[in-house]
């Protein structure tokens, strides 16, 4: 019994020692070992290390634990002296060589396996494959970081689409879709689709940048634009999603009717044309991805050989309909430049085939970028590249000099020579630099051999002495130049700096603007209806708030206008006004302190009651514009006055009034005495003294500075003749000679309104301060 107890105690001691060792290993703190704080600088860490190393070095310190202590000091200094290891330790509690994400996965794997082995849990019981060996083996090589995504993945998305998965730890749905994801990755990666995986727990910045706030999320990236996948995660849906990312006009369907037009487009597009013959009705995804990758260099077409309208093209090019065939056409549409035919074509085979036929035999230099690619800068003596340039005029059909130049390029076997041509009328500065001086080259084709020396445009060149006609002698001379150049690179004796080429195929500004607008609208549509709602909520809230305020303001204004109309026109008062003949629907006679409403001009009558407040004690800088009228002309003149001054009612310094000529004629004539140029001084013995017509006069009164400006209506010749004719008719019909000049022969309502026809111009001059001012000593009393 005692032996049994002793064995149990020994087992307990062994377990306790192991636990203490594990805890001490886990409890290793380099800061505590060196005796420095977590904010210590590298100089403080180095100083503490040197001090402790001298103290605990085994050769100097004979303590039995000195060696272990020295090892801990060295390990602590190794961690803290390396910024990367120190950062990993600060963030993840460990300073291993791997990143924090992988290290935490290893720690989590160790703890889970240790837990599993001690308690005998069968992993198949729960089916939770959370250990990193099984779960991250597929995703590990596709992990994306923010800098890698921005600097490499986004630029590369203009050549191939990317399929990106957002995942995280303890994500049960991520585990559920893992078999499908693995199968799709193996298939699409072989076709040329980029694959990426973002761990939301350790790349939160990138996950937020992508707009993924839940896991798992799958999104596509193409041309820098992000599109989210919203269907069930099955192989066919993911394949269709990737195919939907590609533009719809990448591959043109070619038949007997349009194959000549398609292949003849090489001259306008300056690209070789590719034709795929296959038995599938739909264009294969591999071919679409290839077309997207090389869309800037080649045009792609697809011929469905099972279609009834494809027999002629299939027979003309002798196509084997039982195997996929790819033809590349360059300047000659009757014969392909290269052919490849095989069952189950691989991406690498197609890429090599395309790259070998990326340019035309004698491509046209249409941009500076194409010039850099076709005629690269010399890197070394062994990497010399020469360009034979044909300077020719633009023509709808192939000219004889160009055909001869093309045949010479086709017969060329030197890899160091590239043949190109330039339209002289489109690239005038470029052509003039290479053309020799003289009139004999004007309007003719010229051949020049050049070598680029740097990216700034410096070249050495040699131009043929005679124009290029395409004759056999011209070809012989050009061949001799190339042979001499191969033997002596100094043969190119001329030197020049070429200007940059203009981009001939660039869309015009309007088209670029339309493309940008359509892309922006498409992005907004996708963001609002398909992408993450969290990022769009602030924008949607702002839009709906603005719409709510706008419609609320319109509705309130509509109701207020309707209420104002009811209040301004009560039934009882309307009848009373109609009886009295003083209806004024658009003017208010209330006090001037009331704010004018929309569509109204507030005009008050100048009487002995309002005279002091509206004129004598008017605030500095304010003016009262007074209309002179009579009882008979009141309605018509007020209506015209309101129309003329309505645009000036926004000024708070202007007040509008009217003065009755029948009541205050003497006051008016007293003021007019100070404006003798504007109106003659009346004589009280004049028999027409009381008949002088001042209606339509307008006075702008400045009460503070005691001056006024005068508007005097001017009758036109037509109005005077009409008035005379009207008066003569009335005299002859009524036989009343004494009525001449009185109200019976006065002007009608239309001539009366015409008196104020130029009032708006006068008001503009009034605000400008360019009107003549008439000063008075004091304002007279208004009786």
From TrEMBL:
Its main location: endoplasmic reticulum. InterPro entries: DnaJ_C16_autophagy_reg, DnaJ_domain, DnaJ_domain_CS, DNAJC16_TRX, J_dom_sf, Thioredoxin-like_sf, Thioredoxin_domain. Residues 563-582 have a biased composition (Basic and acidic residues). Keywords: Autophagy, Endoplasmic reticulum, Glycoprotein, Membrane, Signal, Transmembrane, Transmembrane helix. It is a single-pass type IV membrane protein. One of its GO terms (cellular component) is endoplasmic reticulum membrane. Residues 124-247 form the Thioredoxin domain. Residues 1-25 form the signal peptide. Residues 29-93 form the J domain. GO terms for biological process: regulation of autophagosome size. SUPFAM superfamilies: Chaperone J-domain, Thioredoxin-like. It is found in: Endoplasmic reticulum membrane. The keyword Hydrolase does not apply. Residues 562-593 are annotated as: Disordered. Residues 583-593 have a biased composition (Polar residues). Plays an important role in regulating the size of autophagosomes during the formation process. This is DnaJ homolog subfamily C member 16. It comes from Loxodonta africana (African elephant).
């Amino acid at each position: 019994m005692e032996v049994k107890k002793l064995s149990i105690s020994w087992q307990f001691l062994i377990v306790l020692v192991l636990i203490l060792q594990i805890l001490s290993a886990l409890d290793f703190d380099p800061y505590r070992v060196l005796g420095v704080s977590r904010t210590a600088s590298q100089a403080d860490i180095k100083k503490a290390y040197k001090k402790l190393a001298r103290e605990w070095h085994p050769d100097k310190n004979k303590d039995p634990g000195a060696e272990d202590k020295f090892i801990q000091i060295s390990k602590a200094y190794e961690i803290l002296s390396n910024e990367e290891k120190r950062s990993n330790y600060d963030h993840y509690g460990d300073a291993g060589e791997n990143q924090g994400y992988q290290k935490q996965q290893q720690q989590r794997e160790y703890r889970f396996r240790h837990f599993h082995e001690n308690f005998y849990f069968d992993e198949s019981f729960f089916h939770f494959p959370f250990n990193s060996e099984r779960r991250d083996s597929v995703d590990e090589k596709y992990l994306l970081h923010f800098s890698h995504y921005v600097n490499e993945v986004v630029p590369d998305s203009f050549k191939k689409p990317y399929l990106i998965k957002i995942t995280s730890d303890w994500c049960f749905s991520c585990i559920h879709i893992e078999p499908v994801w693995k199968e799709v990755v193996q298939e699409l990666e072989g076709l040329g689709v980029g694959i990426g995986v973002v761990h939301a727990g350790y790349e939160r910045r990138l996950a937020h940048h992508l707009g993924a706030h839940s896991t798992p999320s799958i999104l596509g990236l193409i041309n820098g634009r992000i599109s989210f996948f919203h269907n069930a995660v099955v192989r066919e849906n993911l394949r269709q999603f990737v195919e939907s990312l590609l533009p719809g006009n990448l591959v043109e369907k070619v038949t007997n009717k349009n194959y000549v037009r398609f292949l003849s487009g090489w001259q306008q597009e300056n690209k070789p044309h590719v034709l795929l013959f296959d038995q599938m009705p739909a264009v294969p995804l591999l071919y679409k991805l290839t077309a997207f990758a090389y869309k800037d260099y080649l045009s792609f077409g697809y011929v469905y050989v099972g279609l009834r309208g494809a027999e002629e093209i299939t027979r003309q090019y002798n196509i084997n309909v039982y195997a996929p065939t790819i033809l590349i056409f360059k300047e000659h549409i009757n014969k392909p430049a290269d052919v490849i035919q095989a069952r189950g074509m691989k991406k690498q085979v197609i890429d090599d085939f395309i790259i070998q036929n990326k340019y035309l035999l004698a491509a046209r230099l249409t941009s500076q970028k194409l010039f850099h690619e076709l005629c690269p800068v010399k890197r070394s003596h062994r990497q010399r590249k020469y360009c034979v340039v044909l300077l020719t005029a633009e023509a709808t059909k192939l000219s004889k000099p160009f055909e001869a130049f093309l045949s010479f390029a086709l017969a060329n076997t030197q890899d160091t020579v590239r043949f190109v041509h330039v339209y002289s009328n489109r690239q005038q500065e470029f052509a003039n630099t290479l053309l020799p001086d003289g009139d004999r080259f004007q309007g003719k084709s010229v051949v020049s051999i050049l070598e680029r020396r740097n990216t700034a445009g410096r070249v050495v060149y040699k131009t043929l002495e005679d124009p290029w006609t395409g004759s056999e002698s011209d070809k012989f001379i050009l061949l001799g130049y190339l042979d001499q150049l191969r033997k002596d690179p100094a043969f190119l004796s001329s030197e020049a700096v070429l200007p940059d080429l203009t981009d001939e195929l660039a869309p015009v500004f309007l088209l670029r603007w339309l493309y940008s607008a359509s892309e922006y609208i498409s992005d907004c549509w996708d963001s609002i209806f398909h992408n993450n709602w969290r990022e769009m909520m602030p924008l949607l809230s702002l839009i709906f708030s603005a719409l709510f305020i706008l419609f609320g303001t319109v509705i309130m204004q509509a109701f207020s206008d309707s209420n104002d109309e009811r209040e301004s026109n009560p039934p009882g008062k309307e009848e009373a006004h109609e009886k009295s003949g003083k209806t004024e629907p658009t003017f208010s006679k209330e006090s001037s302190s009331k704010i004018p409403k929309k569509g109204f001009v507030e005009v008050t009558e100048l009487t002995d009651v309002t005279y002091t407040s509206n004129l004598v004690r008017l605030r500095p800088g304010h003016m009262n514009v007074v209309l002179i009228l009579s009882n008979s002309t009141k309605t018509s003149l007020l209506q015209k006055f309101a129309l003329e001054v309505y645009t000036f009612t926004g000024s708070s310094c202007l007040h509008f009034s009217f003065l009755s000529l029948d009541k205050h004629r003497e006051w008016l004539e007293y003021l007019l005495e100070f404006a003798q140029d504007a109106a003659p001084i009346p004589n009280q013995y004049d028999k027409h003294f009381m008949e002088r017509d001042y209606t339509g006069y307008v006075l702008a009164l400045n009460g503070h500075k005691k001056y006024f400006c005068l508007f005097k209506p001017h009758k036109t010749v037509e109005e005077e003749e009409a008035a005379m004719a009207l008066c003569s008719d009335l005299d002859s019909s009524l036989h009343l000679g004494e009525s001449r000049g009185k109200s019976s022969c006065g002007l009608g309502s239309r001539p009366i309104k015409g008196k104020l026809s130029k009032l708006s111009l006068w008001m503009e001059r009034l605000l400008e301060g360019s009107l003549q001012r008439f000063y008075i000593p004091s304002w007279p009393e208004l009786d």
